[in-house]
Amino acid sequence: MTTAVIACGALALHVNAIAERRGWEIDVHPLPPELHNRPEQIAPAVGRLLDELACRYQRVAVAYADCGSYGALDQELRRRGVERLEGDHCYDVFAKPEVAEAMAEQPGTYFLTDFLARTFDRTVWRSLGLDRHPELRDDYFHSYTRVIWLAQRRTPELLELAERVAAMLGLPLEVRDVGESGLEAQLERLAG
Predict the structure, then answer these.
(1) Which residue of 131, 133, 141, 172 is surrounded by the most CB atoms within 10 Å?
(2) What is the mean pLDDT of residues 168-181?
(3) Is the pTM above the cut of 0.85?
């Protein structure tokens, strides 16, 4: 039986790769990653896609953390009897213990995943209008004191992109290799 997985656009490639590697019958239906910039739109977008997929699949799971919906996503999913990934944010899905430790030692931490390092210009910089108004950078990011890249697959190209993001934010960069095992364990619970 094939399971439909509604995935955060920031997780969809990882979900596909894990499912393929594990031989799971999963159809991934990604939503735009830019929804993170408008988290109040996440639950309605997931709800609409659930409605669309309900007649096509016997089983549907959601590969999203709360992602700033402040419980609205959970409320939508509980109503429908659908489960999601655990965690407050996508980076929790990859490395919840590392995230908790980093926040305890330095609350002003900005987290990057591989996806965010690759797409920062589009999904954050341009989406927030910083390409047109770079003077707003400090308004948006004034509380951050460092960037941590939670690397799923460290490559020289991704390291260069993570360094570029940190430079754009004017912050030091730390790298922690976390892989995909956190996401994989949660996907196994949801759809494996």
Answers:
(1) 141
(2) 96
(3) yes
